[in-house]
Amino acid sequence: MSENLGIFGTTTLALALLLSGCSSTSNEASSSTAVDTCQTASEEDLKNINEGMKSSKFRVESGFVADFNADDVAEIKMVFPTYKSPRIFAANIPGADGKPVVGLWGIQDFDYGWRITALDEQTKKYSNLGAEISDSSATGRVNAVMLELSANTNVLSCLKK
User: Fold this and answer.
1) Domain count, the chain
2) pLDDT digit string (tens) for 50-94?
3) Quick check: 159 and 64 in contact, CB under 8 A?
4) Domain of 57?
């Protein structure tokens, strides 16, 4: 009887370890994989983006937003710990020469409200959002991280669909 209990206990322990190993592996994979959804931007997001454009002729008609995965959010919070729910906004801007230009903005909810900032130089040509931010400031540094990590969201592929 005690031999059977020993085998049962060993088997139960081995099974528990095996399942916990499988569980953590799947969690790691899901937190670092690319977000693959094309969420249409809300009217509020479009309004906020358009209010920050340098001219009404650069008005964006539609766009997409994407959330960062858990690993990327952790990396963003290493630079700016008070950010909550950082995400990316992408839209085609009607360019000065009539050809669309891809615009990328970061949207962050942090301890005292929402902030939307143009992330790359191309977007800054058309948008005043975040124009006062220096690259060496905390927001400038987190914008650089968000721009780099935006590739993980697949939001640019949404514009091509």
Assistant:
1) 2
2) 999 999 999 999 999 999 999 999 999 999 888 888 999 999 999
3) yes
4) 36-160
Q: How far apart are the first and last CA of the chain?
A: 65
- Claim to verify: residue 82 and residue 3 sit in the same structural domain: no
Whole-model pTM above 0.85? no
Task: State how beta strands 64-67 and 39-40 pair.
Answer: antiparallel
Same domain, 15 and 56: no
What is the C-alpha separation between 11 and 21, in angstroms, rounded?
Answer: 15
Give the Cα separation of 73 and 160 in Å (integer).
25
Amino acid at the residue 157: S
Q: Are 17 and 70 within one domain?
A: no
Give the list of residues 6+ apart from residue 135 with CB closer than 8 angstroms, or none.
Answer: 141, 144
Q: What is the pLDDT of residues 105-152, one digit of tens each?
A: 999 876 677 789 999 999 999 999 998 999 999 889 999 999 999 999
